[in-house]
Amino acid sequence: MKNLYVIAILALILTGCQESLEDRCERESKEYTAKHCPIRIDQTTRLDSLTFERATHTIHYYYTLMGKADSEEVLQQIDAVGALKTELKNTTTMKVYKDNKYRFAYTYHSEKDPSKVLMEVAFTDKDY
Question: Average pLDDT of 96-107?
């Protein structure tokens, strides 16, 4: 009987300690931003922060574009929206979030004028 009691208590503890996917996403976003951001992705791109918007289940990336990439025209020329969409479709690291139909948003700011949004796009499960 004692063994059954111990097993029941352990089961309650283990289920009580499980983190929801929303909680995990929010925690990981905050931790990544605190530990790594801002981080240079390449010569023209810096990731400033990563957030999770619980109400809309959106993982939101905020970037700054620098140098020759700091232009709306350049983003259109390289089809930045299409490239992001393709990368999102092909990435396996976001599988758990894609399986749960999370949204992914990307905002690119200008380094020359930080208040200027060069591009903002969001993808839903219909896009990936």
Answer: 97
Q: What is the reported pTM? A: 0.84
Distance CA 127, CA 52 (A): 19
pLDDT at 98: 97
**Rounded to whole angstroms, how far apart are CA atoms 102 and 128?**
10
pLDDT, tens digit, 9 for 90 and up, residues 47-98: 999 999 999 999 999 999 999 999 999 999 999 999 999 999 999 999 999 9
Instruction: Count CB neighbours of 40 within 10 A.
Output: 11
- Select from 121, 122, 105 the least CA-distant residue to 51: 105
Instruction: For residue 76, give Cα distances in angstroms to 22, 27, 50, 64, 106.
Output: 33, 34, 24, 16, 15
Q: Which pairs with CB-CB distance under 8 Å and at least 24 residues apart come from 100-103?
A: 100/21, 100/57, 101/57, 101/125, 102/25, 102/57, 102/58, 102/59, 103/56, 103/57, 103/58, 103/59
Q: How far is 31 from 44, CA to CA, in rounded Å?
A: 24
Three-state SS at 43: coil
Would you state the structure tokens that stand for residue 113, as one six-digit string? Answer: 């004028």
